[in-house]
Amino acid sequence: MNKGASATGQTVNLTRLSLSNPVAVIVGVLLVMLFGFISIGRLPVQMTPEAEEPQLFIGTSWRAAAPEEVESEIIEPQEEVLRGLPGLVKLESQAAAGFGQITLNFSIETDLERALIEVMNRLNRVPSYPADADEPVISSGSSSPIRAIAWFAVRPLPGNPREIAGYQDFVEEVVQARIERVRGISNSNAFGGRPNEVRITFDPYRAATYGIDIPRIATLTGGNVDSSGGFTDVGRRQYTVRFAGKYDVEEFEELVLEWRDGIPVKLGDIARAEIVMRDNTG
Predict the structure, then answer these.
(1) What is the pTM of this model?
(2) For residue 278, which of 35, 37, 64 has the smallest C-alpha distance?
(3) pLDDT, tens digit, 9 for 90 and up, residues 50-69
(4) Could you give the CA distance from residue 78 to residue 127 in angstroms, rounded to a whole number?
(5) What are phi and psi of 103, to 5 degrees?
């Protein structure tokens, strides 16, 4: 009872004090309103929820193709099957030398996982791609460096003579693979390096001497693969028939191109095979 009476007395005193000094009350209210308006103006933008349209990106590589070829052979067939996607708001396409990209913007309420499945099913309807074009890659994160949330630079240690551009394969196979396993990372890219390739440098005079034209060399070296011939039954056992026709780079020059009077004409007789970094195009 004493505590209740004391609280009631304090409330009465506060009310009596406010009524006897209305100017102070008005000034206090104005100060509270002033600081309230100032605080609202200084609220960080991060406190305001941002609603972004779900996006999907389709990238298709076709090495050494002109932008016009990428547009007609890759972009246009993909656009044809992607029309009428549920929830699609905007479709943008871009064709560059050796690469084409389509950006799909969906409405905010669209379920991105369902949209991804629908896009994959639509792309399977594309009749065909050029023989040397890569399969399209679908991602939910932009490949544009402007929208990257973080950058990591790789530099050689002092005394390392290896060119930094030669670490492209290592970065893609080791570093990038581990980064993409981090929860929440949708896409990552590696820029600045140069991947390795098998380069065959031929001597045109020697090739002309043996009567071997360049398209034939390209056809034979492009068939550097192993192939299976099925099965054969020998008694109670079944064996796999397999032709090992794939050469390692160290043995590539031993590839037989033709036979002349029982003597093989090997690739090493007219050309040199080696692993080098791909020419820089940017």
Answers:
(1) 0.51
(2) 64
(3) 666 788 999 999 887 889 99
(4) 10
(5) -110, 125
